[in-house]
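Postdoc handover notes: sequence design on the structure in folder B. Input tokens:
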């Protein structure tokens, strides 16, 4: 069963690339006591993710923060090194925190995993965005397969 508005995020260990190397990020600690705009992409460097999804949040980060968001974060079923390289290439460093869900445990626990085997990509996360307030889902926007409508930064801005 997929996570819903009003649910608490599941506990998971995500990974963030740092200058000291990959560092574990406990989801309970990361989301505790603040409002986070979190979005998921099927994969770093993939067409829609690179052309629209991540750039929209990079462009709108200040507007999201002006509406009460403490941090903007992206997660994907990629490793921390790939997400860091993508952040560097996309100009997202210092704007969007990249949280690697390398094994897909986080999206699986939320019921938001997707099977991309027919594209040679294996198990990934669906495309979605959510507002998380102190670990609780306040808004949840899950895209239909292949779509990019309700998970954008602009859509999220309208919800705040």
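Designed sequence:
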């Amino acid at each position: 069963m997929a996570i819903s508005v009003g649910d608490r995020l599941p506990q998971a260990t995500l990974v963030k690339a740092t200058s000291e190397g990959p560092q574990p990020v406990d989801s309970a600690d990361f989301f505790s006591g603040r409002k986070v705009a979190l979005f998921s992409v099927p994969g770093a460097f993939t067409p829609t993710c690179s052309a629209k999804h991540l750039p929209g949040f990079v462009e709108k980060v200040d507007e999201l923060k002006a509406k009460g968001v403490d941090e903007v974060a992206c997660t994907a079923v990629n490793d921390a090194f790939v997400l860091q390289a993508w952040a560097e290439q996309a100009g997202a460093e210092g704007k969007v925190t990249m949280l690697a869900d390398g094994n897909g445990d986080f999206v699986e626990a939320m019921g938001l995993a997707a099977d991309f085997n027919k594209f040679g990509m294996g198990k990934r996360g669906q495309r979605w965005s959510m507002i998380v307030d102190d670990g609780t889902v306040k808004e949840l926007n899950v895209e239909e397969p292949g779509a990019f409508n309700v998970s954008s930064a602009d859509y999220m801005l309208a919800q705040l």
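Context for whoever picks this up: The first strand starts at residue 13 and ends at 18. Don't rerun without checking with the PI first.
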